[in-house]
Amino acid sequence: MKLLVPLILLLASCGSAAGSTSFEADGPISGNILLTGNKGEDTVSLIDLDSGTELARLETGSQPHEIAISPDGQRAAVVAYGGTSIDIIDVAAAAISQTIDIAPNSRPHGLLWLVDNRLVATTEGSDTLTIVDMDDAGVSAMPTGGEGSHMVAVSPDTSRAYVANMRSGTVSVLELATGALLATWEAGEMPEGLAVSSDGTTLWVADRANATLFAFDTTSGERIAEIAVGQFPIRVAISPDGATVVTSNLMSGNLSLIDAESRTLNRTIPVSSSAGTRQVTILFSDDGRTLYVAETGRNRIATVDMERGEVVRHYAAGEDSDGLGITTITPAD
After folding, report:
1. Domain map of the chain by residue range?
2. Does residue 192 come out as left (phi exceeding 0), alpha (psi in the -120 to 50 range) or beta?
3. Closest by alpha carbon to 323, among 48, 86, 66, 17?
4. b/e per residue 88-119 (b: at least 16 CB within 10 A)
5. If we measure between CA atoms, which residue out of 17, 84, 23 comes closest to residue 55?
6. What is the mean pLDDT of residues 26-40?
7. How far, rounded to the nearest angstrom, does the alpha carbon of residue 111 sit from its chain's CA centroid?
8. What is the CATH number that goes with domain 5-18+28-329?
9. Quick check: 17 and 42 in contact, CB under 8 A?
């Protein structure tokens, strides 16, 4: 499928704020908490997964997209794709505790919070990968060598970052310790979503322009598989057991499930079956039984039972809800 220019403009424009609808929590919060970045109104929702109640909605920087949870589960980070900052959320307090300025790096999007307490963010406006050391708030950046650097995956040993460059049709392989560009891999016409296997040996990259999922051997850089998936695969996620790779297909409104070992399409699960829903981010539960799917155009999150292969619940969120994070907060004594 060739990329349609109107769709590009639609996706780029769905971050214009529609006015604040924020509200505070009624005291400290606890339990299983779903966070969603509402990029159409510059807020983040904190939702109780058990009851479905939205406990708080916090004002953020411009166009909050991807969300990352801290290693201890107590904080969450959300990028301001329309600016040059990352907000840090104290989840239990349901409050923004810190805003980190990463200028001159701009338009942060893909985001990970590593086990060594570093934030890794693509900064698409400057085509860099920005690193924030959360221990001392130090900020550094490295050029990606590509254009449209949008999403990032990091190897399990945190030595390498893989960055999808949408306008270049490539993936950059970067050494995090030195900032060195180790390799550039051709990845179709417009790669965006990507994920690395838990053993670090395979990188999965979706070319959204051609409805294709690629698998790369991370040692050799060889493209070892090319799999047809649903239309406009915009995100990639791997099940916690490593057995299944999933693409979120925006134009098809469904999920493609690929067997990681055989590298073949196993199953397709309908979510909305509608392009107008603008289905984007996907996130597995820790046990892999549930997949959360952002139906951005409907301002809600769908819950998919992976064994049954069907949507079993929806959570209402803010306007253009997209980025997702889940954490568990234990009640204070």
Report:
1. 5-18+28-329
2. alpha
3. 66
4. bbebbbbebeeebebeebbbbbbbbbbeeebb
5. 23
6. 95
7. 7
8. 2.130.10.10
9. yes
pLDDT band of residue 14 (cuts 50, 70, 90) is: very low
- As given in the structure block, the two tokens for residue 56 are 């708080």
- Note the maximum CA span of the chain: 56
Check if the beta carbon of residue 62 is closer than 8 Å to that of residue 48.
Answer: no
What is the C-alpha separation between 78 and 99, in angstroms, rounded? 10
Following DSSP, what letter does each residue of 13-66 receive, concatenated? HTT-------B--SS---EEEEEEEETTTTEEEEEETTT--EEEEEE-SSSEEE
DSSP string of 176-206, one letter each residue: TTT--EEEEEE--SSEEEEEE-TTSSEEEEE
| H-helix or E-strand spanning residue 287 | none
Do 280 and 322 meet the contact criterion of CB atoms below 8 Å apart? yes
Mean pLDDT, the chain, whole residue set: 93
- What percent of the chain is modeled with pLDDT above 90? 90
Across 227-255, b (16+ Cβ under 10 Å) vs e yields bebbbbbbbbbbbeeeebbbbbbbbbbbb
* Phi, psi angles (nearest 5°) of residue 78: -140, 135
Record the pTM.
Answer: 0.93
Asked whether the predicted pLDDT for residue 219 surpasses 80, the reply is yes
